[in-house]
């Protein structure tokens, strides 16, 4: 079985302007948002957006479906929570520690997992992540089912008091924007191009002389590190690191976010994360019907919306453009 | 097997645990068998398998509660009903996604699992229902000296072995089975021979689902019949299938029983790790044998 | 665990939109945060929300002309979801007090949020005695029961009546370990001994191998330091493996009415258990339960009954304080004695523990049960002093300064 082959909506040439416009609009929206929306909700969505984007880097551009990304997200959350709470580190060092831990973990997991492909790759990552889950459950410092609670947010660089919700929001926003920029640059760098080449046709990439495993491993580590950054940030936002973050369902959730939003698109994971987090927030009034509604949404998504929201919209725009051009041509 | 009484564990406890492991393995084997059949012939990773297993148990309970239908008829009727439901699912949804990546099958069936589980939870709560319909024949137990073996648990192992062997025989040794296998290799060619491949695939899915439901009925008297019983077990069963080699029937059965035993051993020496040991095994197996123990190399 | 968790739903029922209307200052808002889809649904869940609603209705739906509102949400037994709902409620939705919070892990996390926001939280569902011990809070109240009381009730009774050697099946997380710790202390204090324990992963589908180890230990009593589904499974499978016919006895350290209902009397008979409420205890409990039953088609568990009492006491305190300010209400709650259908002259102590009597029950045999839900017989009423952790043993700093 070859590597995972997902329908990804690769950005069409000429859509760069739109992307730029989208970025500016999003930034303005993000800066204004906490005045209208509940900031903690926004921060949660932002963290998940980053998590999903990190995951998308691997799946959408590298063609590797990891089913163990919760290990990086949750592992980093634990590390950050521990160093900040117990060892009294400032938040910026806490984030760096968490991210570094996730990256190193990613390097180890990746080194083992990239020898396998497709569903077996997914299963190796799942197995490794379950082992980390076990550590999180059993280790003393993680406090089992209770998690690490009451993690102080501290002061960023000793100056900005993050216990203020708005300061925290802009702190999170800055982190996420920076990380997005990094992802964007990675995708559009020669490295990203090689990754895509590997996804499309691995034997060909090998024959062209690329050391495929090195690229995959690097992508895996980068993705793990960014997922860790998301987890660390979440630990500070909610002042909590818990088993939910390392559970396999978290790995599943990030797959869903990415798919619902659109695999292999820059904005897809972001949209997907917002959709899912919003759903969690506002569907709750339907009580136990929530699972049924969510199940229905996934079924509908797979049957009709396979490219995800962003992917399908992109497709529509492209088609509309194509038709206009064709129509214009016919008039002469 | 030669067993050394390690760490002061008396041999009789060890035997007891191994036997219990075997019983759990019987369930893993039956469930992973269904998954393997579905994956082998449809190329779908059926995440809804756990939910359908739960449905099997629930249908048996419902039949007892509202229609007074006992254990033996339920053992046949519940798989038939749930299998028919599986056929509907296949007709309505699954057949649309065969040509797509595995991931979509996984997601679609995951969505179906959420719906089924949600509906049952809505109507029957989560504490679960007691299913007390064990026929007198299977009540009580033997004292084996090293442990007390409830007859029912022994029956589960026997039933599981019969089902597993029957399925293996049907697929590997009969004409129908050979059509099925051929259809997975080259559906067009088989279709050209005048065999209705889509219908065969539909029925196969129904059969795999019926296997899950039958495991559910067998489980009903032992475990609590609860809407959550399926999702508790599905991820472990996935691991079992992967270890055995996706799509391999022998692999599913052997690793089902084998992992039950390993889990049993773990419960003696390091009980906290008993939920994790399967994943350790999976990681090792996949790193050493990429396609699982009995899988064909990709 | 459940699939549904994949798409975890951070839930706030009342929140109609992110752009919340500023709540009118005159509204008194109660938030019921509990499990509405997982293992604790039947013992708290929607029934618990309804119990609070009953208390609000009985208070006339308003206090001094200020309307009382209820919001509720599902914490899914996850600390992160629980805390984010609690935060949102306190921060944005102007919830004055949060109720219930079954699951000790979530409760401890919500306790921290409440402490930080300085808003009231009243626990009915969770068990861990740490809520009023090392982790106590000036704005946290532990209403219905705790692991200390359970251990004192069941542990002491069973040990004294000859069950002097114990083996624990302990749910491998904070609550289970706390319950094992508290019970083991009581067992040794009463001259019994603990022969061993096995830590079982949460929500194990199969307890048979753990039970086998318990059997091999030859202990007279197998103590079940677990809750909900784990308790049900272990009791059920113990009967399957003939544990009780082998002369060993089970002691369920935390058993709810809903568990017994689910197990059936045939399996559960003979279990001894400690609770602060049973519907068929006296005329007052029957009167309340009759009303509750008409609305919910089930008899209330102690958690649900406790929620009614908690909401009633809170609302009375708001009335006598003439304010919803956390400090003033807490002062009034401490000053007023707790009196309702299940509590006689109870008291909210400085550490937040509600000092109340508990009851030791035995589950009836099937032939003793006259009607549906006729499950328990009373063995002994345990005075509050026996089941409440003495001030000098407490790790709570709030008790030290007083």
Strand order of the largest sheet of chain A: 1-2
CA radius of gyration of chain B: 19 Å
According to DSSP, the number of beta strands of chain A is 2
Largest sheet, strands/sense/barrel of chain B: 2 strands, antiparallel
| DSSP helix fraction of chain A | over 70%
Note the gap between the termini of chain A.
Answer: 49 Å
Largest sheet of chain A: 2 strands, antiparallel
Mean pLDDT of chain B: 86
- Percent in helix of chain B: 55-70%
Number of strands of chain B: 2
Structural class of chain B: mainly alpha
Compact description:
The complex is a heterotrimer of chains A (332), B (298) and C (402). Chain A has 332 residues and is mostly helical. Chain A has helices at 16-32, 39-59, 70-85, 91-113, 118-138, 165-188, 190-200, 202-207, 212-238, 248-261, 268-282, 289-304, 308-331, and strands at residues 155-156, 160-161.
Walkthrough of the structure:
The complex is a heterotrimer of chains A (332), B (298) and C (402). Chain A contains 13 helices and two strands; from the N terminus they run H-H-H-H-H-E-E-H-H-H-H-H-H-H-H. By secondary structure, chain A is mainly alpha-helical. Chain A has a two-stranded antiparallel ribbon with strand order 1-2. In chain A, a hairpin with a 3-residue loop joins strand 1 (155-156) and strand 2. The longest helix of chain A has 27 residues, at 212-238. Chain A is globular, with a radius of gyration of 20 Å. The longest helix of chain B has 32 residues, at 11-42. Chain B starts with 10 loop residues before the first helix and ends in a 10-residue tail after the last helix. Chain B has 298 residues and is an all-alpha fold. Helices cover 39% and strands 20% of the residues of chain C. In chain C, the strands form four sheets. Chain C has a six-stranded mixed β-sheet with strand order 2-3-1-4-5-6, sandwiched between helices. Chain C has a four-stranded parallel β-sheet with strand order 8-7-9-10, sandwiched between helices. In chain C, strands 11-15-16 form a three-stranded antiparallel β-sheet. In chain C, helix 1 (45-58) packs parallel to helix 11, helix 2 runs parallel beside helix 3 (104-117) and helix 4 (147-160) runs parallel beside helix 5. The interface between B and C is large, with 47 and 45 residues.
């Amino acid at each position: 079985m070859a590597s995972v082959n997902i329908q990804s909506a690769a950005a069409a040439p000429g859509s760069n302007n739109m992307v730029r416009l989208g970025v500016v609009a999003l930034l303005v929206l993000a800066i204004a948002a906490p005045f209208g929306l509940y900031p903690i909700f926004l921060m949660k969505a932002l963290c998940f957006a980053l998590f999903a984007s990190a995951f998308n880097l691997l799946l959408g551009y590298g063609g590797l479906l990891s089913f163990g990304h919760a290990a990086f997200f949750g592992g980093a959350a634990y590390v950050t929570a521990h160093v900040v709470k117990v060892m009294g580190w400032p938040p910026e060092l806490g984030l760096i520690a968490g991210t570094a831990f996730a990256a190193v973990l990613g390097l180890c997991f990746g080194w083992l997992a990239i020898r396998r492909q497709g569903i077996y790759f997914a299963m190796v990552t799942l197995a490794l992540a379950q082992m980390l889950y076990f550590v999180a459950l059993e280790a003393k410092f993680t406090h089992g089912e209770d998690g690490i609670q009451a993690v102080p947010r501290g002061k960023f660089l000793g100056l900005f008091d993050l216990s203020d919700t708005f300061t925290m929001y802009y702190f999170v926003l800055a982190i996420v924007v920076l990380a997005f920029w990094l992802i964007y640059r990675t995708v559009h760098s020669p490295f990203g191009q090689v990754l895509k080449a590997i996804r499309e046709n691995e034997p060909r990439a090998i024959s062209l002389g690329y050391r495929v495993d090195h690229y995959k491993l690097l992508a895996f580590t980068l993705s793990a590190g960014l997922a860790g950054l998301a987890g660390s940030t979440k630990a500070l936002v909610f002042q909590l690191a818990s088993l939910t973050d390392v559970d396999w369902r978290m790995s599943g959730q990030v797959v869903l976010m990415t798919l619902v939003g659109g695999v292999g698109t820059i904005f897809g994971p972001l949209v997907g994360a917002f959709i899912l987090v919003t759903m969690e927030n506002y569907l709750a009034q339907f009580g136990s019907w929530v699972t049924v509604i969510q199940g229905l949404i996934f079924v509908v998504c797979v049957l009709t919306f396979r490219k995800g929201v962003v992917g399908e919209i992109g497709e529509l725009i492209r088609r509309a453009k194509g038709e206009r051009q064709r129509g214009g041509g016919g008039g002469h | 097997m030669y067993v050394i009484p390690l760490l002061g564990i008396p041999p009789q406890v060890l035997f007891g645990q191994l036997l219990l492991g075997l019983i759990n393995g019987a369930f893993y084997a039956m469930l992973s068998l269904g998954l393997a059949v579905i994956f082998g012939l449809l190329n779908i990773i059926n995440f809804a398998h756990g939910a359908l297993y739960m449905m099997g148990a629930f249908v048996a309970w419902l039949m007892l509660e509202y229609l007074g239908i006992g254990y033996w008829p339920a053992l046949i009727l519940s798989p038939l009903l749930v299998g028919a439901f599986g056929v509907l699912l296949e007709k309505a949804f699954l057949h649309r996604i065969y040509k797509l990546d595995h991931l979509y099958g996984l997601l679609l069936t995951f969505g179906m699992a959420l719906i089924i589980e949600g509906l049952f939870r809505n109507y029957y709560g989560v504490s679960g229902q007691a299913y007390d319909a064990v026929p007198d024949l299977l009540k009580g137990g033997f004292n084996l000296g090293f442990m007390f073996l409830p007859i029912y648990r022994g029956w589960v192992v026997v039933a599981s072995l019969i089902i597993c062997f029957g399925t293996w025989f049907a697929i590997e040794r009969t004409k129908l089975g050979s059509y099925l296998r051929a259809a997975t290799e080259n559906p067009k060619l088989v279709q050209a021979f005048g065999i209705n491949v889509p219908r065969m695939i539909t029925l196969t899915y129904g059969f795999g689902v019926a296997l899950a439901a039958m495991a559910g009925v067998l489980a009903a008297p032992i475990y609590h019949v609860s809407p959550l019983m399926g999702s508790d077990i599905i991820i472990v069963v996935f691991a079992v299938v992967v270890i055995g080699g996706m799509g391999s029937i022998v692999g599913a059965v052997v690793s089902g029983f084998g992992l039950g035993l390993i889990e049993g051993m773990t419960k003696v020496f390091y009980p906290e790790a008993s939920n994790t040991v399967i994943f350790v095994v999976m990681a090792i197996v996949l790193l050493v044998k990429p396609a699982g123990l009995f899988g064909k190399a990709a | 665990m459940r699939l549904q968790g994949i798409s975890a739903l951070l839930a706030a029922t009342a929140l109609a939109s992110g752009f919340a209307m500023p709540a009118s200052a005159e509204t008194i808002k109660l938030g019921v945060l509990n499990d509405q889809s997982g293992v604790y649904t039947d013992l708290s869940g929607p029934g618990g929300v309804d119990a609070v609603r009953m208390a609000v209705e009985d208070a006339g739906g308003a206090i001094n002309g200020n309307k009382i509102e209820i919001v509720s949400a599902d914490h899914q037994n996850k600390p992160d979801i629980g805390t984010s709902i609690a935060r949102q409620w306190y921060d944005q939705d102007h919830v004055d007090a949060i109720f219930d919070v079954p699951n000790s892990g979530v409760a401890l996390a919500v306790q921290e949020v409440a402490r930080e926001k300085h808003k009231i939280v009243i626990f009915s569902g969770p068990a861990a005695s740490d809520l009023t011990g090392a982790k106590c809070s000036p704005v946290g109240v532990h209403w219905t029961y705790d692991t200390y009381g359970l251990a004192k009730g069941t542990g002491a009774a069973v040990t004294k009546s000859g069950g002097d050697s114990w083996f624990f099946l302990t749910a491998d997380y904070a609550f289970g370990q706390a319950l094992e710790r508290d019970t083991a202390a009581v067992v040794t204090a009463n001259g019994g001994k603990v022969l061993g324990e096995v830590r079982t992963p949460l929500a194990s589908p199969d307890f048979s191998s753990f039970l086998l180890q318990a059997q091999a230990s030859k202990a007279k009593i197998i103590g079940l330091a677990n809750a909900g589904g784990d308790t049900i499974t272990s009791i059920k499978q113990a009967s399957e493996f003939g544990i009780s016919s082998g002369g060993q006895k089970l002691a369920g350290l935390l058993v709810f009415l809903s568990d017994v209902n689910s197990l059936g009397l045939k399996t559960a008979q003979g279990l001894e258990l400690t609770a602060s409420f049973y519907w068929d205890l006296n005329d007052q409990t029957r009167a309340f339960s009759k009303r509750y039953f008409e609305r919910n088609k089930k008899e209330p568990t102690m958690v649900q009954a406790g929620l009614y009492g908690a909401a009633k006491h809170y609302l009375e305190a708001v009335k006598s304080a003439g304010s919803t300010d956390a400090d003033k209400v807490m002062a009034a709650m401490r000053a007023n004695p707790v009196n309702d259908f299940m509590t006689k002259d109870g008291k909210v102590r400085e550490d937040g523990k509600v000092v109340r009597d508990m009851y030791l029950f035995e589950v009836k045999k099937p032939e003793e049960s006259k009607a549906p839900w006729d499950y328990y017989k009373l063995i002994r009423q345990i005075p509050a002093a026996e089941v409440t952790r003495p001030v000098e043993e407490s790790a709570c700093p709030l008790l030290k300064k007083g």
